Amino acid sequence: MTKPDWKQICVVATAAAIFIVYLCARGCSHEPKKRFPPTRGINTVLTNEMSEFEGDGKLSRDVSNFMSRWSIKGLSLSVTRNDSLLFARGFGQADDEVPMGPGNIMRIASVSKLFTAVGIMKLQEQGRLRLSDKVFGADGILNDTTFTNAIKDRNYFKINVEHLLRHEAGFSVRKGDPMFITRDIMALNHLDTPPDHETLVRLMLRQKLWFTPGESEEYSNFGYLLLSMIIEKVTGQDYEEWMQANVLEPAGVLDMHIAGNTYEDKYPNEVRYYMQANDPTVPKFDNSGEMVVRCYGGSDIHSLSGAGAWMASTPELARFVASIDGRKQLTDILNIKSVRTMTDDFGNHRYGIGWSSVDSEQGWLRTGSLAGTNLFIMLYPDGECWVMGTNTHNWKGPRFSGYVRQFISECRRKYSGSLPSRNLFEAEATK
């Protein structure tokens, strides 16, 4: 019998041990798992200096006063007219000691719903779904048996895609918004980890609807999560990836991403989010027991998906609006029929599709609010669009948008006529 070569065995064992340690080190790395793509598009080109104009000092003073009044760390403002970018500038801080610029991206909260709605309209134009299509049941889009078997209230089978788009599906937040009560859902259902989208939907489908679909309305983040899942089901692709390739890039919007939950997850040109100085820490959404700053782990932002998780800069938001406004200066990514469907004016008691409100006299409004951020878009009937975003929490929450609207209206009255005729969108072509 041949004696074992212990020296050779030791060499092999040592090499194997080193390799295992290497694999473990990789697997246990605390580096963010996502790979951050390089910043692209208009965000790499624009600078604050490019938006100088005669009288901009007075505008800067007014913005500074507004920021001081509401204790805002950083603010981004962009203005377009007839699809041309006239102004794009940052004020204050994007991060500690880092000035805000027009190319900084931030969480846009419920403004995300506008993008999800456009994705659905694009699929309808492609003949891949109809707004009248049922959502649940054997003939529905989300026809998985795990969903169908969970349904006790047969009104679920009446929900169609348009009901979700218009917040008319029958969902309510009277017992809490399921997108923001992750800890409660985990506790009630004895879950060790936050529910994924499929699990959350299955749990929600056990509950009764609050009204018959189509007979009333109530704002629903959960409904727009379902729309995100519909996009994935119909396309067979990840929601973010499909939206980037089929909606955002055709619109010339190249630097939008789904947000992470922590500061460590931030993109290189993403802002830091701030709470007010006296805001207490809160339990992390995953029931880990960790106490966190509310805007960095208080809620599962990433899982909001198309209901509220997108990030963007204000110039790219303005460019996107220009691509769905029905005007001819910039080629739209939707046909005029789809644009009109999204913006039919049904009065004050019905949402537009994706828009917070549509009014033939006041304009089209889209707002969004999360801990640490507030976004405001107003497209006026004369073709002028003002987009403003902040990276600081405000105690007014969604009501803060009313104060922003007043401020924007005043700035428009005072400075609209002073903005020079130019198109900063063209700067990207000359880079």
Your description of this structure?
By secondary structure, this protein is an alpha+beta fold. It contains twelve helices and twelve strands. The chain has helices at about 5-25, 55-70, 110-125, 145-150, 160-165, 180-190, 195-205, 220-235, 240-250, 315-320, 335-340, 400-415, and strands spanning about 75-80, 85-95, 100, 105, 255-260, 280-285, 290, 310, 355-360, 365-370, 375-380, 385-390. Mean pLDDT is about 90; it is low at about 10-35. The N and C termini lie far apart (about 75 Å). The strands form three sheets. Strands 3-2-1-12-11-10-9 form a seven-stranded antiparallel sheet, with helices on both faces. Strands 4-8-5 form a three-stranded antiparallel sheet. A two-stranded antiparallel sheet has the order 6-7. A hairpin with a 3-residue loop joins strand 9 and strand 10 (about 365-370). It is globular and about 65 Å long.
Keywords:
alpha+beta; 3-stranded antiparallel beta sheet; 7-stranded antiparallel beta sheet; globular; 431 residues; 30% helix
Briefly say what this structure is.
The chain is an alpha+beta fold and 431 residues long. The protein has twelve helices and twelve strands. The chain has a seven-stranded antiparallel β-sheet, sandwiched between helices. Strands 4-8-5 form a three-stranded antiparallel β-sheet.
